[in-house]
Amino acid sequence: MAYEIPCWFMRGGTSKGPFFRAADLPQDIATRDGVIMDVLGTPDPRQIDGLGGATSLTSKAGILSIPTDGAADLDFLFAQVGTSEASVDTTPNCGNMLAAALPAAIEAGLLQGDSGRTIRRVRTVNTGVIAEIAIETPDGRPLYDGDAHIDGVPRPAAPVSCGFLDTEGAVCGALLPTGNTRDEIDGVAVTMIDNGMPVLVMRAADVGITGYETPAELNGNAALKARIEAIRLKAGPLMNLGDVAKKPIPKITLVAAPRAGGAICTRTFIPHDCHAAIGVLGAVTVATAAVMEGSVAYDLAQAGSGQTRTLSIEHPSGEFSVELGFEGLRVVRAALLRTARLLMRGSVPVSPAVWRGPAA
């Protein structure tokens, strides 16, 4: 008989996936990852036999627990799950799924919501980054309906405020892992940067495109994808990430001058297919590159001035606004708006061939 695990299926920003309590999952990591792949239907490009949505944005999971060290109110372990390949990667952050972590924890009974508004410190266990998350909680329960709109989600919802501190070098160990604002790989100028998400930034024009193409057009450009992947593979060791052939990081962002009133125009590959939008911490990192003199993005950007700046990052389905706070020339704070929604609560059966439950 299949063992069933409690599950809360959430949309966070422009991503979605199941959330679990850590105590309900196997403690052995290999078995845990097997359970997550079984639940999502991996490996299979359609994920027809699981909850996965057959894209990188919809093949994700979150694992929640209460920390004992007092550093945060909630621990969130993010899992990027492969589709065609049998993989569960807990290396990177995901700011979109992070937006759903606090409401999921309240739904799961791990935390109690406050009356009116709930603010908690949530640590992404993957990298140790802590974010202050604020959600609306009438009567202590998460509110999902509201007037906040984010591009990439068809209807408005209640706002989720995400404030990030100390994200520099969260994965690579340094904001600029090579120590340079600009390097060159295979004759192409690049900025390798990590302000919460490792990103390899290149000018779209330098790889033979305008940067305004649709994701479908870029995904159909086999020569472009092969060229930028070759650059990404060489960037991996330079960014202290080692062999990245089977890793979703670094992301690749191709930048062009803004054309819709924003700060900069982007096309992001995660890592092999062009994203319809841009990830949360990817947007923070690209915004940081845009204000950094000497980067490949700097001369293209309309980045404004002042110690607090809001940069609108243009992407294929709209824009993503990031507020950056500075101390001198250094970015020390990033704040942004997301939304989240509970899509399903219940339990999900796991194949006995994968796990028979804690008593087995």
Binned strand content: 25-35%
Cross-sheet strand order for the largest sheet: 1-2-3-4-6-7-8-16
Distance between the termini: 12 Å
- CATH class value of the largest domain: Alpha Beta
Instruction: Please give the CATH architecture of the largest domain.
Output: Roll
Structural class by helix and strand composition: alpha+beta
The CATH superfamily of the largest domain is identified as: Diaminopimelate Epimerase, Chain A, domain 1
Q: How many E strands?
A: 16
- Structurally, the number of domains stands at 2
Rg computed from alpha carbons, rounded to a whole number of angstroms:
20 Å
**Biggest sheet, open or closed, and with what strands and sense?**
8 strands, mixed, barrel
CATH topology of the largest domain, by name, is Diaminopimelate Epimerase, Chain A, domain 1
Number of helices: 5
Mean pLDDT: 95
